[in-house]
Amino acid sequence: MSERCGNSCDHDHVAEEVQETAREAPQVDESRRSFVCGALASGGAAVSAATMTIPYVSTAQAQGLDPVKSGVRNHYYVAATDKSVHWGYFSKRLKPIVQIASGDFVTIEAITHHAYDDFERMIKGDPGVESIFYWDKNKKNVDRRGAGPMDASVLGRGAGEGFGVHVCTGPVYVKGAEYGDILEVRIVDVSPRPCANPAHKGKSFGSNAAAWWGFHYNDLIEEPKKREVITIYELDSSKERNWAKAVYNYRWVPQTDPFGVVHKIIDYPGVPVDHSLVKENHGILKDVRIPVRPHFGVIGLAPKEADIVDSIPPGPFGGNIDNWRIGKGATMYYPVQVDGALFSVGDPHASQGDSELCGTAIESSLTGTFQLILHKKATLVGSSLDDLKYPLLETQDEWVLHGFSFANYLEELGPEAQSKIYSKSSIDLAMRDAFRKMRHFLMTTQGLTEDEAISLMTVGVDFGITQVVDGNWGVHGIVKKSLFAGRTDF
């Protein structure tokens, strides 16, 4: 669950990271301050720069202080347990795990939904993860897994039908947030979750599933051509080694869950894998080092269009964007859809390439520390965040815009949107959306004409495929801030 860290807090390393970031913020955020606060050429009110220099103290110091009067912000910790996660869906009706004020810090444990691919390495001995994945013939701690019916009346897979797969921790309620506001999410720190099994002390692990929903699946050249393969990777939990290595792989074979349902393919999250039925192939990808770049595949707010929404397709609320750049040091901006924003985190990745081609990344549990800053709609008029209708990523050197096959599939595809999206997505549509968003961004934040914007995005902006596996496919556009380093007229 959640707690406000006190005198017995054992998260000192996190607090130190937060404090260090807070001390550095005025220096490293100058370009961000200019971006957020800069008014358009047409004039208008700018966002207050005060929100960009919020002081931080540890929560032990902050207890008893009025955060509004003192300017002091709190630090909350949300542990992942079966009581603090929602599995495979977003919902505006979820009860918040914790309520915070704008500017507060929150550390959140995010657990991979692929942990049961290797129980010994990713679940055993970890009370929080064990509570989430607990499932015997009589009981499943987290019963709903997905946005489907609880009686599994569609496909018979299990409660929620696996229409959505991600273990999401939250939601976090941001006081004062309402439709039309923008929530700024600063990712202060990201750390791997150490393996709790003494046999693997000092290590962390992740799973990559080359699955039936992957782009490759119908284009295999070796037999058997319809196969799903799990590869287990090892990481250094101390972060001293910045690369991962493959440990072994195995092909998925039919697995029978504790309720007696047979899963011939990977069609329901959290099914216990019986390793006596699979053949582990060790010595794979020998001497290959995969760069570790920890990030969160899912960071999202509750959508407004439906009471319960599949966690897989991304949208204007964020969600399953699967961009590896959304890691430590990055800042995301999300349009608030519902009161309190209802911020959740999930789908933690140790590493991923653009496209997430085979269906997953290195799915590995992480803990992140975030600072959430609310920008009220009334203060956005004339600013660079005015009329932002999509999740926007900012790093020290770049802005990254996210285009989708459907900018808002829940709105555009109607009552059957959550099923239709899986058959209607294309890279062409995602590129069109990315182009339109980039044109708007350059014209509104940099004051360019349409002709100038089109020329600049052609010669100076990099577009790439974010993912082709999440129902609503993604194309991102990267704008380097150095393009505008010489400007003095805007």
Low-confidence segments, given as residue ranges, are: 6-29, 38-70
How are the strands ordered across the major sheet? 1-2-6-22-8-19-23-24-26-25
- Portion in helices: 10-25%
DSSP, total strands: 26
Task: Give a quick account of the main beta sheet: strands, pairing sense, barrel closure.
Answer: 10 strands, mixed
Task: Provide the gyration radius in Å.
Answer: 22 Å
| pLDDT averaged residue by residue | 89
Number of helices: 11
Structural class: alpha+beta
Tell me what portion of residues adopts beta-strand conformation: 25-35%
Tell the overall outline.
Answer: globular
User: What is the terminal separation in angstroms?
Assistant: 47 Å
Key structural traits:
490 residues; alpha+beta; ten-stranded mixed β-sheet; seven-stranded mixed β-sheet; 11 helices
Commentary on this structure:
With 490 residues, this protein is α+β, with helices and mostly antiparallel strands. The chain contains 11 helices and 26 strands. The strands form 5 sheets. It has a 10-stranded mixed beta sheet. Helix 10 (427-445) crosses helix 11 (450-460). It is globular. The model is unreliable at 6-29 and 38-70 (pLDDT under 50).
